[in-house]
């Protein structure tokens, strides 16, 4: 059965939008992978989100989303963090600082498996740094557009990491350029700014994604949901998914652990087979 996971990005401070989005998912019993920006995180948010997680441990997953979610290239501001040729040591240090911050703030509530690079931008050095620090899952984008999919396909054949700063997706698989597994999003409900389109348009995008994968990641940014209409679109979309009886809701860690178990079991059978 196709699996669906939600990724809510840019968690940092505790605000009304976050409270409303978190409640929306909790009421519907749908887990969410929240991507936390280490330098955005406030003490107030730590207190509230840990409290919430204590009551709903399987519904709230807290992962790392970059370090400061911005960078300057030739004096120009970018919301990305790991493009522009940053060295391996530089990226390693930045990601390590963020990981330590989250581990200190969130303690055992920090899930150190998943890393989401801001703006889904990364290069080979980013992936090397992630592996060295112990991350296992890269989450970026895997968009169901024909041309984009052709580029991914060609890039994977050549074992490329990125083309012109855009990541080559290996979604649902181990990447051939590192030891990382990839679980990326295929549907963006908003662009961190205004909420996109109508419920019907979002459902069309969801259907398009289903043509390419049976592990469909959906991204949102709670801070984008400011008006009643925004929440209506979000609620309408989620409730339409709930009415589909042929999908199930899960989270990235659960998917990854299942695949790891299956892979290990297949390898064991393979060994037994070889031994006769
Ligand atoms: Zn972000």
Structure description:
43% of the residues lie in helices and 18% in strands. It is an alpha/beta fold. The protein has a single domain (3-274), classed as TIM Barrel (Alpha-Beta Barrel). Strand 11 (187-188), helix 6 and strand 12 form a beta-alpha-beta unit. Helix 3 packs across helix 4 and helix 6 crosses helix 7. The longest helix is centred in the last third of the chain and has 23 residues, at 252-274. The mean pLDDT is 94.
Strand/helix succession: EHEHEEEHEHEHEEEEHEHEH
Q: Please tell me what the overall shape is.
A: globular
Domain count: 1
Give me the Rg, rounded: 19 Å
Return the CATH topology: TIM Barrel
Short description:
The chain has 276 residues and is of the alpha/beta class. It is built from eight helices and 13 strands.
Q: Key terms for this structure?
A:
TIM Barrel; alpha/beta; 13 strands; 276 residues; 18% strand; binds zinc ion
